[in-house]
Amino acid sequence: MIESPAFAPLNDFITELSAHSQRPGPAEIIFALLLSFGLNCLIATLYKRTYRGTSYSQDYVHTLLILGTVVTAVIMIVSGNGATAFGMFAAFSIIRFRRSVGQSRDIGFIFFAMATGLAVGARAYAMAAVITPMVCVLILGLWWRDAFAPRRLSHRLRIRVPNEFDYDNEFATVFREFLGFHALGSVETVQAGMMTELRYDITLIDASRVGAFIAQLQHLNGNNRILVTSVGEVSAQSD
After folding, report:
1. pTM of the full structure
2. Residues of 107-142 as b/e, b for ≥16 C-beta within 10 angstroms?
């Protein structure tokens, strides 16, 4: 329980509500449902804020709010009554979630809403009020940092250089300035063996500077052919 003097009236109110009575009274029922709904609104807002898919569903967000709040009501109903709890279990066992879940993270938010509803329904009010915002902050941090994201290529580079050109050393400075990632995919002789064509997978730090990137490469390779292809479309070319 929160021990700060500023929260003393709230602590006293919660303690009075959940004073180990067998059944919650009307005041506690209203308080629990409002708390559950408020915490699930926080979860729903987080889901909307961090959603990165292409088929956002308002219906799904409303389901999170309804599910979390209803779970609170169910837990309060079955609390301390084994026969009712068994009946509820039997009833819910034949109910299935009919929505096709688009992303695996959607399942996580369903369990998050249910866990919050369970905690409030079990009268662990302080635990629910602390854990739910903390988990939301952690999820928001993962989203903001784009944690565990795969490496994303932005372009492919094809560049021709003279056969004697030391491309590993000559391109190093330009690559450090403009690229976040580069990998040499292939080396091929062209023009009857008179030139070498290099093919790289690259990720530009700033895609708007592709022109400056090409200009720097042209200066190094003697204005020979350069082709920078965006993943999916031709971006820039120099002959």
Report:
1. 0.60
2. eebbebbbbbbbbbbbbebbebbeebeebbeebeee
